Amino acid sequence: MEEKKIPEFEIEKYIHSLHLHPILEKAALYTLMLPGKRLRPNFLTASAEDFRVSKKTTSKAAMAIEMMHAASLIHDDLPAVDNDNYRRGKPSNHVVFGEDVAIMAGDLLFSTALHLCEEIDESVSVAFSKTLVDLVDGETRDIIMSKSNDVTVDEIVEMYRKKTGALFAFAFSFGPRIAKQSTEKYEEAGYNFGVSFQILDDILDVTSTFEKIGKTPQKDAEQHKATLVQKIGVEDSHKIADTLYRKVLLNLKDSEKLLKEVKKSEKLLRKR
């Protein structure tokens, strides 16, 4: 899939404008600039194009969602959480800069992401704050569930909706939110896409290689993670992911740009 050029120059310029300690600045930019699919800002931009949102407003929100995603990756890789030394084929943030600085870099990116959304619109700021709450709650559920032997399929799906789906829900609904139109079907599409995406990611954890996914495979089983793959197997998990993906396409049938972007991402995910 061709990567859209998210406002990386603007991100670097914005981080530079904060006049941070050089090590903190390097740590924050390190994860932000790692090569990746940029799904979330791409989806947000497509949603904005469908509703004719200005490029200036879209640029701020695209930066914010990529910052929040990068922050979550930094914290997710920490030894106390998922304990992964690699991200996107490169050493994780804490491996390069130490756990202490990595935590600060994540905190910084969460803060700057929220600030950028405050500059856009109150409704965007409120929605983004809720997204952060869902993200943190989902990550916490993931941690707690890994210590339990009695987790249901519904509980795992709810964890996926918050941990992974929340950011996609914000991205999908950005255009209609700015246009002051109903966001319900777009948010639901984003949550469903997130669950489907997370299921496929968990399947790759047991079927793929480091070279293809850029992080350590087989980690979920080693860390007793609560995943649908561990609970019901690869085949049945795939069926759920496919069903949810079809619902996403149905909800987005009237959204030309966003639907096109989602279909491009689906082709990429299936090839990995």
**How many beta-strand elements?**
2
The structural class is mainly alpha
Average pLDDT reading: 90
Tell me which CATH architecture applies here: Orthogonal Bundle
Shape: globular
Corresponding CATH superfamily: Farnesyl Diphosphate Synthase
Radius of gyration: 18 Å
**Count of DSSP H/I helices:** 15
Strand line-up in the sheet with most strands: 1-2
What portion of residues is helical? over 70%
Q: Report the sheet-strand fraction.
A: under 5%
CATH hierarchy, class = Mainly Alpha
Question: How far do the termini sit from each other?
Answer: 12 Å
List the uncertain runs.
none
Summarize the structure.
This protein has 272 residues and is an all-alpha fold. The protein is built from 15 helices and two strands.
What's the arrangement of secondary structure elements?
Elements: H1 8-17, H2 22-32, H3 39-50, H4 55-76, E1 86-87, E2 90-91, H5 93-97, H6 99-118, H7 122-145, H8 153-172, H9 174-178, H10 184-207, H11 210-213, H12 219-222, H13 228-232, H14 234-251, H15 256-271
